[in-house]
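Re: the request from the purification team.
They wanted to know what the chain is likely to look like in 3D before they choose a buffer screen. I agreed to run a prediction and write the result into the notebook, where they can find it.
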Amino acid sequence: MAEGNGLAGFLKRKNILFSAKRYGIDALGAMAQGLFASLLIGTIISTLGEQLHWQVLIDIGAFAKAATGPAMAASIGLALLSPPLVLFSLVAVGSAANSLGGAGGPLAVFFAAIVASELGKAVSKETKIDIIVTPAVTITAGVLFSMAFAPGIGAAASAVGSAVMWATELQPFLMGIAVAVIVGVALTLPISSAAICAALSLTGLAGGAAVAGCCAQMVGFAVMSFKENRWGGLFAQGIGTSMLQMGNIVKNPRIWIAPTLAAAVTGPIATCIFKLQMNGAAIASGMGTCGFVGQIGVYTGWINDISQGLKAGITAFDWIGLVLICFLLPAVLTPLFAMPLRKIGWIKPGDLKLDL
């Protein structure tokens, strides 16, 4: 059979690639950007408006949050290299999936957007009435998929998230360790911890543990590698992402031990001592100190709790806990844990060097 013929040739020509990287890394990471550009930034703007008593900012934030589903779907479509008509049609798909998915809407959007995008790409430019066929197939497939599966996907994601949060309330010490370590590791891996937290609606004490784990990775790597990377590396990792160290981790996985141990310590301190909770947008649980989004999320949660009568006010103890968990403890613990590793040669000079 000539090259380019058959199903394999068709899929290659349409740039439809079934791979864990494209769906689990590219699409999931893009979904987090869509969430950031809608739900998260909308929450920040509306919270600022509430604090300043500016109705225009509250309204702007509300419009941004209302675009959450379409923003996620379009971001996923862009990551999947969808042609323009497919990409624009995904807006309707994202709206349907997010609405029908309920609390687990982000995960429903993730699957619906992938299905609609790939089917839309398959029919794109295959007919002389492409402007009708491609949007019709993309939207119909995506919305039908959402109607059939989004409620179930959303309910399952919500149930998993609720189980994690319930377990954290029941066993704050053990779950504080588990959640902080797992979400922190996910943040450094080339996948999206923010999208995972959003998909599971991870808030409350579990969200607080997730914030602790992410901060331990980001601040920990930033401080531990200061000698090699100086101030540029400190800011790039500390308020950017610890994912920058992934190449070095592949070369020497032992450099990951110290920040992960720091997460195992700060997680239960967050849940058991300071009762740190993320009651803002769930996506902020997986952002750590990236743009200080995790801390802003905790603060917006405090404000929400106060407005609902669940919290009397923000105390000095709250602020101390936030600063310790997110900044000071990771900055102190990670280099301490790294010291014996350096002495026995597990971490050598240059192992943490970034190409900045």
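For the purification team: The CA atoms of residues 15 and 353 lie 36 Å apart.
Please add any questions underneath this entry.
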